[in-house]
Amino acid sequence: MKLLADVDSILQGVGVYRDRYRGGERLVRSPLTGETIAQVEDANPDSVTEAIGQSEKAFLAWRSLPAPRRGEFVRVLGEELRAAKTELGRLVTIETGKILSEGHGEVQEMIDICDFAVGLSRQLYGLTIASERPHHRMMEQWHPLGPVGIITAFNFPVAVWSWNAALALVCGDPVIWKPSEKTPLTALAVEALVRRAVERFGGAPAGLSTVLIGGREIGEMLVDDPRVPLVSATGSTAMGQIVGRRLARRFARAILELGGNNASIVCPSADLDLALRAIAFAAVGTAGQRCTSLRRLFVHRDTYDALVDRLKQVYATVQIGNPLTSSTVLVGPLIDGVAFHRMQEVLAEARKLGGQVVGGDRFETAPYPAAHYVRPALVEMPGQIGPVLQETFAPILYVMKYSDFDEALALHNAVRQGLSSSIFSTDVHEIEKFLSVAGSDCGIANVNIGPSGAEIGGAFGGEKETGGGREAGSDAWKAYMRRVTSTINFGKDLPLAQGVKFEV
Ligand code: NAD
């Protein structure tokens, strides 16, 4: 009852209409207690078609507004997010189970990307290029693209939307969001904050930002609609395989942000105190439910016992439980029973292959029999085999010994995913090799920090089965615009490129 009242007060506080979260057919559960906290209504084929039509119309108006003015809208949105940070962060915790500090951190990330996008709105520039023809000039321009579909996963229920939306909006594109069916409430809260921003801004077209609640079938409608030129989809590799193919069929653009199987290498020269803290955060933080969570750890045999003994102590003492009832909790629940059973299956498989498992069992929290709390699992593996090669979205850390740095590097890259990676070392040769072309094959390669916890200033994403997409900082904005190359002749003659002669 208390959680229900909490949710109601947050949603009312940010301005969500009560009929958006009461009386619908889809039950929303909090992983903190397993209880139903809301009932939302799914979109249907008609409402999806209409929403995309509205978005298409909004595009015609929005694309003509000067980009710095579009940036002004994103600035106002950032202000609304700042004002609602405490409540929205708490709702993220209630809906995903992550600790409050991470819930608030997720909203901070939304604010950060809004700030970034505001600056970007005055920097959407192309190049002027030297022409080989006399009295000619070449240039490129970046134009808005059209409605952008955004499909998001449960584990970062709002930040991933903002990475895409803040950029798309300053680039001149309306956004249509299909949030995870497991976390619709945070999406409804953001929808209400966007509405406030629209009211304060004045002059934003209807349909500039839309939320479509529902499961994969709603996502598929976005993916298949020719009026949506770009879909950014975040989730499992299995989802990306379907979405990627469907988008390719109609030559639409895709930003795919899929699963990771992230590793760290701990070298003999590493600062072990620092490595221990970084590994703990990356492996057990967010209950192992980050795409960048640390899943594979390669430790040099001279350092192995010292580090692994200390890691076991951390695993034995880390506080697990409901983050709303204790401020010392560092590990919240898994999202649901499916995730719990999958974790148990995978641990059984690891044991069969000779893995020595510490933890991984259900952590009984008596007041919440319907919730799924687990002790994080540390698994010493005889080699990189079986489940080590796949992503299990749970707190399982596989630890393996190595003797030779190049062997560790080869093992590091010998998986199908390529999101994030890190090295703990003070040896410049090892560090630079890890970062070099012959080093980590991931989209993110860190030194003396773990693989998780990205900042928005850099481009975020990964290679191989992680999908190849890039979002957030650097020049990721270019994916949301179309490039036009123009050649201008300001002379009286018509010289042709490559010296071609064509006299008529
Ligand atoms: P999921 O694949 O089950 O669902 C993600 C989203 O895709 C949901 O909104 C879902 O409804 C939608 N979806 C599923 N099938 C679809 C289809 N055929 N067409 C259109 N939409 C479809 O993932 P999840 O369990 O919510 O999230 C966990 C996964 O997401 C992990 O694999 C994690 O690594 C990954 N993830 C990746 C990143 C990244 O940036 N690389 C970030 C967060 C999460």
Low-confidence stretches are none
Please bin the fraction of helical residues: 25-40%
As a whole number of angstroms, the C-alpha radius of gyration is 24 Å
Number of strands: 21
> Can you give the mean pLDDT?
97
* First and last CA, distance: 84 Å
Number of helices: 14
SS content category: alpha/beta
Anisotropy-based shape: globular
Strand content: 15-25%
What does this structure look like?
The chain has a 7-stranded mixed beta sheet, with helices on both faces. The chain has a 5-stranded parallel beta sheet with strand order 7-6-5-8-9, with helices on both faces. A 3-stranded antiparallel beta sheet has the order 3-4-21, with no helix packed on it. Strand 16 (420-424), helix 14 (428-435) and strand 17 (444-447) form a beta-alpha-beta unit. Helix 10 (272-284) packs across helix 11 (301-317). Helix content is 39%, strand content 18%. The longest helix has 21 residues, at 100-120. The chain contains 14 helices and 21 strands. It has helices at 2-14, 45-62, 67-83, 85-96, 100-120, 159-170, 184-201, 216-224, 237-249, 272-284, 301-317, 337-352, 405-413, 428-435; strands spanning 26-29, 36-40, 128-129, 136-144, 148-151, 175-178, 209-211, 230-234, 253-257, 262-266, 294-300, 356-358, 377-380, 396-402, 417-418, 420-424, 444-447, 459-460, 463-464, 471-472, 481-489. The radius of gyration is 24 Å and the shape is globular. The model has no long low-confidence stretch (mean pLDDT 97). It has 504 residues and is α/β, with parallel strands linked by helices. Bound molecules: nicotinamide-adenine-dinucleotide. Nicotinamide-adenine-dinucleotide binds at residues 151-156, 160, 178, 180-181, 215-216, 219-220, 223, 234-236, 239, 242-243, 257-260, 291, 391, 393, 419, 466.
